[in-house]
Amino acid sequence: MEQLPAIIDRPVRLGVLISGGGTTLLNFLDCIRDGSMSAEVPLVISSRPDCQGVQRAIDAGLDCISTCRRDFADISEFSDAVFGALRAKQIDLVTLAGYLSLLHIPDDFRHRVLNIHPALIPAFSGKGMYGHHVHDAVVARGAKVSGCTVHFADNEYDHGPIVLQSSVEVPDDATAEDVADLVFEREKIAYPEAIRRVTSGQLSVDGRRTRLAVPDAGELDPGTTT
């Protein structure tokens, strides 16, 4: 069992990786401003130079760079560039915020990369299951619940140890857009809470399971989180 170290004497340094609108990044910045998350964002990395999140990061006064997979010979070279930039900024914790490029995570970032998936893993997860594809599949299957999962990223899609999950009920007449909106409202609470848990010194990783030393810690509604 690996006990994760606490980061409690200063704000956690987050690297935020984006590919789209940057709404999760904006949520992090809101949480930092209102004091509900002790963090700073020294670096934003985008997999696309033209996505809306890049402009939002710049407007927020953040250091933002674009690193595109197609500009590198292979995934190893691409991953080296991404994690090299993160090391240069002394990033404590990497947060994948709608980031769509697969990375190979080096040993020094083991259990230091978080991802949020817009469904309850293992349902509606894996390669090709991202963004609207997930919510389309939820509606097509007639699922009664969906939600989000925050997990440690490894070198497979939606595979690493789960930190927490938060569920929502899916109304019978919900569209994929409705489900997306419901799930994102849960993501706005779940992702910052996962960051707090990881940096609290109370979380340990045992194989593919995580254990929280204070089970009732956190700010999510009772009955919606594991």
Can you walk through the features of this model?
The strands form two sheets. The chain has a seven-stranded mixed sheet with strand order 4-3-2-5-6-7-8, sandwiched between helices. The chain has five helices and ten strands. Helix 4 crosses helix 5. Helix 2 links the parallel strand 3 and strand 4. It has 226 residues and is α/β, with parallel strands linked by helices. Helices cover 30% and strands 24% of the residues. It is globular. The protein folds into two domains: 101 residues, Rossmann fold (3-Layer(aba) Sandwich); 94 residues, Formyl transferase, N-terminal domain (Rossmann fold).
Walk me through the topology:
Blueprint: E1 2-3, E2 12-18, H1 23-33, E3 39-46, H2 52-59, E4 64-66, H3 75-88, E5 93-97, E6 113-117, H4 132-141, E7 145-152, E8 162-169, H5 176-199, E9 203-206, E10 209-212
Parallel strand pairs: 2-3, 2-5, 3-4, 5-6
Antiparallel strand pairs: 1-9, 6-7, 7-8, 9-10
Notable characteristics:
single chain, 226 residues, alpha/beta, Rossmann fold, 7-stranded mixed beta sheet, 3-stranded antiparallel beta sheet, 5 helices
Q: Which stretches are poorly predicted, pLDDT < 50 over at least 5 residues?
A: none
User: In CATH, what is the class of the largest domain?
Assistant: Alpha Beta
Proper CATH architecture of the largest domain = 3-Layer(aba) Sandwich
Average pLDDT over all residues:
93
Radius of gyration: 17 Å
Summarize the structure.
By secondary structure, the chain is of the alpha/beta class. The chain has helices at 23-33, 52-59, 75-88, 132-141, 176-199; strands at 2-3, 12-18, 39-46, 64-66, 93-97, 113-117, 145-152, 162-169, 203-206, 209-212. Strands 4-3-2-5-6-7-8 form a seven-stranded mixed sheet, sandwiched between helices. The chain has a three-stranded antiparallel sheet with strand order 1-9-10.
